[in-house]
Specification:
A hairpin with a 6-residue loop joins strand 1 and strand 2. It is elongated and about 60 Å long. A two-stranded antiparallel sheet has the order 1-2. Helices cover 66% and strands 4% of the residues. Helix 1 runs antiparallel to helix 2. By secondary structure, it is mainly α.
């Protein structure tokens, strides 16, 4: 596992091809683009002086869309990467994945 000091994101040093269960998450791109559009709409609403409640409703919608994206990626991670590590004969793999999940949920 590599730790990027710039982003704080850990990535596996092994190529993705060595992780047959690793998802590409490309299917999430339309959802991410929708979130981007919502955030841009919030910016336009603020710049045009829209009513606070209207802005807050858009913020709530964007937050909900991000939470949905997060849930989908987490589900994919659990069903792929974590499941693979738990089935691995190397207990270190499982321990590392469980620690990653614990750290993520603790944030």
């Amino acid at each position: 596992i590599r730790d990027s000091s710039v982003t704080g994101v850990q990535t596996c040093a092994l190529p993705i091809s060595s992780h047959p269960q690793h998802a590409s998450h490309e299917a999430e791109l339309p959802r991410l683009r929708r979130v981007r559009g919502q955030v841009e709409a919030i910016e336009r609403m603020i710049m045009s002086g829209r009513y606070c409640v209207d802005i807050l409703q858009q913020v709530k919608a964007a937050r909900s869309a991000l939470q949905s994206l997060e849930s989908s990626i987490l589900r994919s991670h659990l069903e792929g990467c974590v499941k693979q590590a738990l089935e691995s004969p190397r207990s270190f793999d499982a321990e590392k994945k469980l620690q990653e999940i614990s750290d993520l949920l603790g944030r």
